[in-house]
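job 3f2a | input accepted
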Amino acid sequence: MLGQARYLCVIGRARLVPSWFAKVHPTTGTPLNATIVLGICQASIALFTELDIVIEMISIGTLLVFYLVSNALIFRRYVILSKNPPLHTLLFLFLLSSTSFAFSLSWKFKLHWWNLTLFAGLIFFTTVIFQYFVPMVVMERQESWLVPFMPWPATISIFLNVFLMTTLKMVAYKRFGIWTCVITIFYVLYGVHSTYHAEEILEMVVVVDNVNVNSSTQQQITKVDVQLV
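job 3f2a | predicted structure (229 res):
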């Protein structure tokens, strides 16, 4: 929660929220408005909300973000960078999430041990088959850092995040669903239009700057020609 002010400042620069949140203090360089508003909101939540509710809301949000990042990492490495057809990668991600969810439910409801062995084996062999049949381009650029031993780190991350999310209570998912609906409505009604408008303004500024640069260059060339004459 302490890092949310920085996130809100960046989101404000993208105009997904009012740009007022992107204001930075001239001396300290910190997001002033975002820190004040979020500080008041977080203090109010801490004052009027039970700790268990806050912990589960933070946990489900963080775990979901880590889960999505792990999926995006596999998709980026095997589809965007390696130029493979997306179908095989999407099928692998679907099977991986499904078997991880099945293993987690088997663990939660304390089913027979062979259920856990079956789903764990499916996760392992699915990853092995995907790694063997779907090629990955190895980047040799020294200035870039990439996650090694792919896709195993992302696979383990997906499994652990799914497993931990199944340990949360159902009421946490209901609260998270309500909050997600509110944020989605705000994004559709405000964020999309504001971002699109900001991009139009940025394109106009770039065009004006290019025109000014071209006119300034032309004037300099004209002055040089006059001096030569």
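job 3f2a | The radius of gyration is 25 Å.
job 3f2a | closed
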